[in-house]
Amino acid sequence: MVKRRMIHDCIWQSEELGSLTLFERILWIGLITTADDQGRGRAHPGLVKSAVFPFDIFSQDEIQHGLDELVKAEMLLVYKVKGKVYYQVVNWWEYQKPQWAGKSDYPAPEGWLDKMRYHGAGHKVIAVNWGENNKGSKPPSKLPSKPPLPIVKVKEEVKVKEEDNNTPLHEPKPIPTYKDLRQTWIALFPYKPKPRENNKTLTAKVKTRMDEPDFYDNWSGALARASKHRGLIDASWFDFAWFVQNGDNWEKLLTGKYDFLDKSQHRSEVLPVITPVTAKDM
Q1: Which residue of 14, 92, 105, 210 has the lowest C-beta tally within 10 Å?
Q2: Are 240 and 195 contacting, i.e. CB atoms less than 8 angstroms apart?
Q3: For the whole model, what pTM was predicted?
Q4: Residue where a domain terminates, one of 110, 127, 162
Q5: Residue 18 domain-assigned?
Q6: How far is CA 231 from the centre of its chain?
Q7: Concatenated DSSP letters for the chain?
Q8: In a shared domain, residues 155 and 99
Q9: Whole domain around residue 231: which residue ranges?
């Protein structure tokens, strides 16, 4: 996946963007730069905060409000597939002019046309809906009140040509292994039980989780957030096996579902009673 994104200089003269708050403008640019090659990503406010505002204190309600405003401005399309919420940048292909574009990690909105150009088997270039001018299909000037976005479908054609010897191949980003996650766990949680170095069950679990794009992108952020909460660290059930057990546990960490443990821990703490010393006691 190519992560270089084009931010056109005309963005600062856009009346649509100018009508948004400063926070919403930064959120908009952040969504563009963190979207996949098809202009798509997860729209869960917790995941958006982790990707765009990792060092800032914004609530999920603030993130959700920002997403809603971008939808109202017809700059973003938010939709749900199998219980998960995604976003699609509406005018993605109007401003993004990459040489390569891979398949999306996420399902497309109904009726949306993806464009791809990537290296296939045998060093061949696979082009789907690419076209010579690379302009792609544009959405209508006004979006409908409800999805799906009614883009005219174009018959998909796959064009295969021999790879030019002068065209550089893009090496895929290495996939973290059980060893990588284990080392990170030990570094962040030195007082928690350490998973065995050669654990076939956990190795298989990590491999399964890494096949999930959301886990692949956010596992380190989830562990980093968990390491800052004493309530989680002290919880006996919170261990490495629990973290990789399924596709929900790590996301709960990332989105702050267990932050309440810190508060409950503080409420249970008993402060020592200090008896003032008087001259009579001396």
Answers
A1: 14
A2: yes
A3: 0.52
A4: 162
A5: yes
A6: 25
A7: --------GGGGG-HHHHTS-HHHHHHHHHHHHHS-TTSEEE--HHHHHHHH-TTS---HHHHHHHHHHHHHTTSEEEEEETTEEEEEETTHHHH---S-B---SSPPPTT----EEEE-GGGEEEEES--SS---PPPPSS--SSSSP-PPP----EEEEEPPTTSPP-PPPPPP-HHHHHHHHHHH-TTSPPPPSS-HHHHHHHHHHHTSHHHHHHHHHHHHHHTT-HHHHT-TT-SHHHHTSSTTHHHHHHTTTTTHHHHHHHHH--PPPPPPP-GGG-
A8: yes
A9: 178-267
* Domain match, 94 and 147 both: yes
pLDDT one digit per residue (tens) for the chain, 282 residues: 556 788 878 888 888 888 899 999 999 999 999 999 899 999 999 999 989 998 888 999 999 999 999 999 999 999 999 999 999 999 888 888 887 888 888 999 988 888 888 777 777 888 888 874 444 444 443 443 334 443 333 333 344 444 444 444 444 567 889 999 999 999 889 889 999 999 999 999 999 998 888 888 888 888 988 888 888 888 889 999 999 999 889 888 888 888 777 665 544 444 344 455 555 555
| Distance from the Cα of residue 169 to its chain's centroid | 25
Pairing state between β 158-162 and 116-119: unpaired
User: Pick from 130, 140, 27, 128: which is nearest to 87 by CA?
Assistant: 27
Short-list 194, 266, 182, 267, CA closest to 229: 266
Can you read off the two tokens belonging to residue 72? 């109202």
